[in-house]
């Protein structure tokens, strides 16, 4: 018992979590659950928002240590707005992802944070990038991360199709989050989803009781 | 050979030597494990069971065509995951006990009996064992049944059960795709699809897909080779 308490004190608040992002025909959907837990024993927040806006049409989801992720995102927001002023144009999605990647890679010994970046820009349209723990950055059409993501690899592999419609993609993301939250005890709460297209940004929040139910529930 | 004899003469632990000696490969000190994906589904009239075929010692694949679907009695099979040695030993013990019991009764044993025998061994020796087992079969009393005996020795009956290291990746797929009252063909397709998805993501699962369906009429076994696996991934 003592050993487990110490573990939680040393590790701090961590986002045992499920985050994902997927591209569809004309935009991206990025989403997460809303639970923050201490050592897997206590839910310190039921309604934390892990989908952070870093620029007008670029959002990031954080995974890993909440403290590390918030610190990195704060620095990234600054770098990105400075970059945007210098270039005199909105930043590209890859710029946001690269800023996160530089911070994660150069401080890899101290940090324990991973990110999914999704957004829309004029150059390449809808994009999704994942920056993993050691600082690798990869562009993918769909990506999942966080502790709850292990349970939905099979579902995502089988169900995601490129060029879905907005409604199909939203349903796919909601289902994936619901399935992960149903199996991972450190993911839960509500599903936060953000849809980013050329015309703008739309927030969708699906409360716990409105999430899709599957056969055994 | 020379390296092994040197180790024995010095009376040192195999594992300690492995770490220091460049002549001894890492996998000599690693236990053989069926890091695996196994699955069992009930349908009206029987059960469908499936498994991958990879057995690993560390990063080396000791057997790429393993048969993890082990017969315990005429209409009762078990799917093994965890330590290969532990699960083989337990399965041997249980098939002996069940065979004896069946002769005493002069009729086919119940699946529930087999499951309880597995549970008894797995629970009693839970500190020493690493074994996750699915027991599945058909009997006259309750038809097709699937029982799950995970590490620790719990026993629970479920209409569909998955196990092994690769199973974590297909929980979402199973939760969304399984429906009660499927036919035998649907169960076979679902099992093959789920195992394929797990094998593509789990490094400890792979090889071929072995399937078996058990009903009153008997046991039908089939193998799906790597190039004939269903194309389930969309990207």
TrEMBL record, chain A:
PROSITE patterns: PROTEASOME_BETA_2. GO terms for molecular function: threonine-type endopeptidase activity. It comes from the Eukaryota. Its EC number is 3.4.25.1. It is an enzyme of class 3 (hydrolase). InterPro entries: Ntn_hydrolases_N, Pept_T1A_subB, Proteasome_sua/b, Proteasome_suB-type. The active site is at 17 (nucleophile). The 26S proteasome consists of a 20S proteasome core and two 19S regulatory subunits. The 20S proteasome core is composed of 28 subunits that are arranged in four stacked rings, resulting in a barrel-shaped structure. The two end rings are each formed by seven alpha subunits, and the two central rings are each formed by seven beta subunits. The catalytic chamber with the active sites is on the inside of the barrel. This is proteasome endopeptidase complex. The lineage of its organism: Eukaryota, Metazoa, Chordata, Craniata, Vertebrata.
UniProtKB/TrEMBL annotation, chain B:
It comes from the Eukaryota. GO terms for molecular function: threonine-type endopeptidase activity. Gene3D superfamilies: Glutamine Phosphoribosylpyrophosphate, subunit 1, domain 1. The active site is at 36 (nucleophile). One of its GO terms (biological process) is immune system process. Its main location: cytoplasm. It is found in: Cytoplasm; Nucleus. InterPro entries: Ntn_hydrolases_N, Pept_T1A_subB, Proteasome_bsu_CS, Proteasome_sua/b, Proteasome_suB-type. Keywords: Cytoplasm, Hydrolase, Immunity, Nucleus, Protease, Proteasome, Threonine protease, Zymogen. It catalyses: Cleavage of peptide bonds with very broad specificity. Pfam families: Proteasome (PF00227). One of its GO terms (cellular component) is nucleus. Belongs to the peptidase T1B family. The proteasome is a multicatalytic proteinase complex which is characterized by its ability to cleave peptides with Arg, Phe, Tyr, Leu, and Glu adjacent to the leaving group at neutral or slightly basic pH. The proteasome has an ATP-dependent proteolytic activity. This subunit is involved in antigen processing to generate class I binding peptides. The 26S proteasome consists of a 20S proteasome core and two 19S regulatory subunits. The 20S proteasome core is composed of 28 subunits that are arranged in four stacked rings, resulting in a barrel-shaped structure. The two end rings are each formed by seven alpha subunits, and the two central rings are each formed by seven beta subunits. The catalytic chamber with the active sites is on the inside of the barrel. Component of the immunoproteasome, where it displaces the equivalent housekeeping subunit PSMB6. Component of the proteasome complex. This is Proteasome subunit beta. It comes from Knipowitschia caucasica.
């Amino acid at each position: 018992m003592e050993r487990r308490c110490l573990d939680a004190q040393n590790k701090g608040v961590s986002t045992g979590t499920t985050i994902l992002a997927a591209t569809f025909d004309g935009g991206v959907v990025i989403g997460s659950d809303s639970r923050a837990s201490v050592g897997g024993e206590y839910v310190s927040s039921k309604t934390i928002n892990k989908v952070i806006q870093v620029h007008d049409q670029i959002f990031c989801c954080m995974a890993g240590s909440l403290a590390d992720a918030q610190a990195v995102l704060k620095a990234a927001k600054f770098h990105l707005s400075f970059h945007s002023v210098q270039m005199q144009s909105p930043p590209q999605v890859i710029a946001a992802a690269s800023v996160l990647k530089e911070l994660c890679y150069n401080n890899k010994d101290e940090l324990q944070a991973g990110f999914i970046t999704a957004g829309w820009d004029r150059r390449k349209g809808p994009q999704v990038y994942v920056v993993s723990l050691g600082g690798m950055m990869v562009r993918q059409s769909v990506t999942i991360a966080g502790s709850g993501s292990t349970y939905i690899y099979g579902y995502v592999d089988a169900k995601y199709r490129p060029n879905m419609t907005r409604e199909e993609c939203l349903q796919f993301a909601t289902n994936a989050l619901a399935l992960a939250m149903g199996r991972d005890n450190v993911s839960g709460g509500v599903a936060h989803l953000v849809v980013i297209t050329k015309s703008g940004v739309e927030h969708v929040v699906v409360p716990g009781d409105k999430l899709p139910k599957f056969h055994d529930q | 050979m020379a390296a092994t004899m040197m180790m024995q003469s010095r009376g040192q632990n195999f594992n300690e030597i492995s770490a220091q000696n460049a002549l001894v490969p890492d996998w000599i000190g690693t236990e053989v494990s069926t890091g695996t994906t196994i699955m069992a589904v009930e349908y009206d009239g029987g059960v469908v069971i499936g498994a991958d075929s990879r057995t690993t010692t560390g990063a080396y694949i000791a057997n790429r065509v393993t048969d993890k679907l082990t017969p315990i009695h005429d209409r009762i099979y078990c799917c093994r995951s965890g330590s290969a040695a532990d699960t083989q030993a337990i399965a041997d013990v249980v098939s002996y006990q069940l065979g004896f019991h069946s002769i005493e009764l002069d009729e086919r044993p119940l699946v529930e009996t087999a499951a309880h025998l597995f549970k008894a061994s797995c629970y009693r020796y839970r500190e020493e064992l690493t074994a996750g087992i699915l027991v599945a079969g058909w009997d006259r009393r309750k038809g097709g049944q699937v029982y799950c005996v995970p590490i620790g020795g719990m026993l629970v009956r479920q209409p569909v059960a998955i196990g092994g290291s690769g199973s974590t990746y297909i929980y979402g797929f199973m939760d969304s795709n399984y429906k009660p009252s499927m036919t035998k063909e649907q169960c076979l397709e679902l099992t093959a699809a789920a195992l394929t998805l797990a094998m593509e993501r789990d490094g400890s699962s792979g090889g071929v897909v072995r399937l078996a369906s058990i009903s009153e009429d008997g046991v039908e076994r089939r193998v799906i080779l790597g190039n004939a696996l269903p194309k389930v991934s969309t990207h």
